[in-house]
Design a protein that fits this description.
By secondary structure, the protein is mostly beta strands. It has 4 helices and 35 strands. It has one domain: YVTN repeat-like/Quinoprotein amine dehydrogenase (Methylamine Dehydrogenase, Chain H). Strand 22 and strand 23 form a beta hairpin. GO terms for molecular function: carotenoid dioxygenase activity; metal ion binding. This is Lignostilbene-alpha,beta-dioxygenase-like enzyme.
Length: 494
């Protein structure tokens, strides 16, 4: 049940040269209507797609060590009456402004970017640049650019101008953080059946503390709890169900000495321990429920992202996650553009079934194809669901860049694939339900595609049921590979 719109080639379905070009910095900031290259934009598709990702891969010609260290650039696609208006703008963080003025790198960053001058210039300097580059969310009339290492930046949703650091009326303290992976629960049974936004941050130390927040639609704090877990925790994402938060603590060790002495970035000091089990923390959302936190273990590899989670009968929880057999460790002496895809383990979709009564975990590989960036219907967050959309490789086996969109049907155990190969490279798929849709897959899938042969990006709209291409719109320039985005059901037009 596979539909490929590009012809497979006898050789690799991608050009390494084209893929590398997608990591060139983009300094232009513009606002214009997109050109419709093919098809037509559905008039019922009305709202705004926000996307975030690293826009600068160098500071005045000095390359950064890893794309995760790149300054955040927001892209906004506003849909109205079959037209799409595009705007992009960098988040004016304190570090961005200072480095642009100085013309050089002034900060060490998590994934290995160092100040020029060697270890003597970097030793004992623990100040990190908040790069606001990972996700963007609109909640409680606030548009927030998120980076899990620091506080969010608030932006003007009409102009994308940076308003400044946002501490949510004092809920977030100085030096705290707000994860880049909030979940919006559409109808919360423990919060008067209203929508709520749930997020966390990790406070490191001799042991790690997980702080979890729940907010009502006006960004008022509904509940907060903190839970200490032993050891170092590298947790990028989490999962929710109506009654639980679920955190997978990856089996890693952190040796801070090379970081302290200016030899490595913090992430370059993380060592993955594949022989050790992942700890799973199941934390009751309602502290008055009488339930206690459960600790479970399973050998799960390394996990960045979870697709969804839901409760089933007899105190069981299913968690669907993208797992890697090995953590792609950051090598301080390497160029990330020279990655050998074939030598790395692909991300694959697994289902974990947690039994809270017996404290056991069953696991099953669901999709062996290389995949990442899972996305579920927004009304199905934390609930049983049928369809999961993901970025995937063009070929069915092995590791490769994401060039296609995969739709997995849990009920039929079937998949559909739309591919942009050989010259296109996709971003995270965003599923937007149709206003009058009845079925779970009745909607559109939006993805930003970098076209290597044109060195430009295109916005592609796919039909949710079939993954057939509905429309393709052209940008005037390329957008470097991004990370995460969100959809807002209204439009900002001028």
């Amino acid at each position: 049940m596979t539909s490929l719109t590009s012809k497979p080639t006898s050789e690799q379905p991608y050009s390494k040269q084209y893929w590398r070009q997608g990591y060139q910095s983009q300094r232009q900031e513009e606002s214009y209507d997109l050109e419709i290259l093919s098809g037509s934009v559905p008039k019922a598709l009305t709202g705004t797609l926000f996307r975030n990702g690293p826009g600068l891969l160098d500071i005045h010609g000095i390359p950064i060590q890893h794309p995760f260290d790149g300054d955040g650039m927001i892209c906004k696609f506003s849909f109205k009456e079959g037209n799409v208006h595009f705007q992009n703008r960098f988040v004016r963080t304190e570090g961005f402004l200072k480095e642009q003025e100085a013309g050089t790198i002034l900060y060490r960053n998590v994934f290995g970017t160092q100040k020029p001058g060697g270890w003597l210039k970097n030793a004992f300097d623990f100040k990190q640049k908040n790069i606001a580059n990972t996700n963007i969310t609109y909640w409680g009339d606030k548009l927030l650019a998120l980076w899990e290492g620091g506080l969010p930046h608030r932006l003007n949703p009409d102009t994308l101008e940076t308003i400044g650091i946002e501490q949510l009326d004092g809920i977030l303290g100085e030096g705290e953080a707000f994860s880049a992976h909030p979940w919006v629960e559409p109808e919360s049974v423990i919060n008067d059946h209203q929508p709520c936004l749930i997020n966390f941050y990790i406070e490191p130390g001799l042991s790690t503390t997980i702080h979890i927040y729940e907010f009502d639609p006006d960004f008022n704090l509904l509940r907060k709890q903190s839970y200490p877990v032993p050891g170092f925790a590298f947790v990028h994402d989490f999962a929710i169900t109506p009654h639980y938060y679920i955190f997978f603590q990856n089996p890693v060790k952190f040796n801070p000495i090379p970081f302290v002495f200016g030899l490595r970035g913090a992430a370059e000091c993380i060592k993955f321990k594949p022989e050790e089990n992942t700890r799973i923390w199941v934390i009751p959302r309602d502290k008055n429920s009488g339930e206690t936190v459960k600790e479970l273990e399973v050998n799960a590899g390394f996990i960045f992202h979870h697709g969804n989670a839901f409760e089933v009968k007899n105190k069981q929880i299913c968690v669907d996650s993208i797992c890697y057999a090995d953590f792609p460790e950051v090598d301080a002496d390497s160029d990330f553009r020279d990655v050998d895809f074939e030598a790395l383990s692909p991300g694959q979709l697994w289902r974990f079934t947690l039994d809270l009564e017996t404290a056991t975990v069953a696991k099953k590989i669901i999709e062996p194809r290389c995949c990442e960036f899972p996305f579920v219907h927004p009304k199905k967050v934390g609930q049983p669901y049928r369809y999961l959309f993901m970025g995937t490789a063009h070929q069915a086996r092995g590791n490769a860049p994401l060039q296609a969109i995969l739709k997995y049907d849990w009920e039929k155990e079937e998949r559909l694939v739309w591919s942009a190969a050989p010259n296109g490279f996709v971003s995270e798929p965003i599923f937007v339900p149709k206003p009058d849709g009845n079925d779970e897959d009745d909607g559109w899938v939006l993805t930003l595609v970098y076209q290597g042969e044109k060195h430009r990006s295109e916005l592609v709209i796919l039909e949710g049921k079939t993954l057939e291409e509905t429309a393709r719109l052209g940008l005037r320039y390329h957008i470097p590979y991004g990370l995460h985005g969100s959809w807002v059901d209204y439009s900002h037009f001028h």
